[in-house]
Amino acid sequence: MENLLDLQDLEKSFGHQLVLDHVGFQLQAGEIIGLIGPSGAGKSTMIKTMLGMEKADGGLALVLAHAMPNRHILGDIGYMAQSDALYEALSGQENLEFFARLKGLTKKELARDIAHVARVVDLTEHLNKAVSGYSGGMKRRLSLAIAFLGNPKLLILDEPTVGIDPSLRKKIWQELLMLRDKGMGILVTTHVMEEAELTDKVGLLLGGKIIAFDSPSRLKESYGVSSIEEVFLKAEGE
Fold it and tell me: Can you give the CATH number for the domain in which 42 is found?
């Protein structure tokens, strides 16, 4: 299988604080990897560093076999940051159109994709409203819709379901699992342990290190517990 993400001994410090301590793993096409860990564990920093938004102090991060930043592969990556980066003076529709054009979608693809992603995140009825009038949850849903645009090879989602109600969260995960089954690679950070149970592999990031990395079933078996939440608590206690 093709490695879409290859992290090797990634290191990052801010001043004297070591945030990423030799982090390494691979993500393949047709796979969902979930990253869990307490706030401040380094999950968002890891994503920013591998995407070239922060400069690594050591190690290697290859995204679609390229070191980042690399503008030539941006159209193959769907990225949703922890903070929403939206044009609030524009409508939801205009935001989607803008980012769809950046990804190189044709006019026909643009209309089809926007209609689909708006349905997935339940924003169809709100697309003509200015984003400045959106609630926090609606902005998260729009950011997620933007990440879905263009059927990217790799989807990187940093806490995508924060502020989203359980029924819509379930619908979003149905979409993620369907995309995975079509061959997309997905990296998702989450604080929702039920979501971590749905992934193919779970990585537990603590103190800048990945201290556990395996399928949910194997992690539960190795720690002798019945849920990923218990794995998290037991590993954190150790």
Answer: 3.40.50.300
Token digits of residue 22: 């030799």
Dihedral sign from CA coordinates of 19, 233, 237, 34: negative
| Structural domains of the chain, count | 1
Residue 201 within a domain: yes
Tell me the three state secondary structure of residue 171.
helix
Please check whether residue 21 is in contact with residue 11, taking contact to mean a CB–CB distance below 8 angstroms. yes
Tens digit of pLDDT at every position of the chain (238 positions) = 789 999 999 999 999 999 999 999 999 999 999 999 988 889 999 999 999 999 999 999 999 999 998 988 988 999 999 888 999 999 999 999 999 999 999 999 999 999 999 999 999 999 999 999 999 999 999 999 999 999 999 999 999 998 889 999 999 999 999 999 999 999 999 988 999 999 999 999 998 999 999 999 999 999 999 999 999 888 887 7
Domain assignment of residue 77, yes or no: yes
| Helix 136-148 vs helix 92-102: crossing angle, to nearest 10 | 30
Does residue 130 lie in a domain region? no
69 upstream amide cis, omega within 30 of 0: yes
Sign for the CA dihedral angle at 182, 188, 194, 196 comes to positive
3-state class of 60 per DSSP?
Answer: strand
Which domain, by its residues, includes 9?
A: 3-84+151-237
* Residue 130 and residue 89 in contact, taking contact as beta carbons nearer than 8 Å: yes
Is residue 161 a contact partner of residue 192, using CB atoms and an 8 Å limit?
yes
